[in-house]
Amino acid sequence: MTSQCSACGNPLTLEVDEEEEDEYDQGGSSSGTVVPDSVQLDASSHTSSGEEQVLCNLNNEGGFQEGFDILPVLKEESYLKAFPEERRCRAFLEFCAEGDVGAIIDLINGEEDENASMSSDEGVAAKPIDVLRYQDPMGSLNTGLHVAISNGREEIVWLLLFLASNLELHYFPPDIVEAARTLGATREEHTGKVDIRVLENSEHGTAENLAHQLGGVWEPWIQSGRLRPVVNGFLPIV
Prior knowledge:
Layout: E1 13-14, H1 18-25, E2 38-46, E3 52-60, E4 63-69, H2 71-82, H3 87-98, H4 101-117, H5 144-150, H6 154-164, H7 174-182, H8 207-214, H9 219-224
Helix pairs in contact: 3-4, 3-5, 5-6, 5-8
């Protein structure tokens, strides 16, 4: 049953104005559920596993959804209001989940210009966020590489290794390198930067550990060692 206002008795409805809609359209929320034209909120409840949820009837440009849990969306938007500088990072993680190679490259290519123009209120240059190595504080500190592996996105894994690891170029299929460069991807200088494969989530698991857990399409990756960073001269076996 839809919750009602204690004062007037009308259903509780959340309306989103055009300015907020534009903000969502620009990749504001990484939930994939954006631009809620009308949301009727039900009472808060808990799942069978004890997790809190807020079910609602969602009506937006994607159609009508009944019993949609909007709590993760609300939490993310609350977080982004407190840390708006991470909006681009959240969009990056969503692109990794969706397998959108072009969107990732466009985002990364635009990052340098944006970071150059960023400054704090005192006029001192703000420290830029490394989007490629961003670890999701709302998602167990997973990196884009973790997210891509979780969603079976091999093309994204290749791209992230190309952009944010020290894996030697001869380990990449020629068509992968050619496609990345055709789309405008350039390999950065890795001196002093962390290889994305080293980064661990909150459970102390690397992307390679996750691939081990999932198996399937990732078995050849595990066997080749491509997901394991070069340490003390170690090179993956291909």
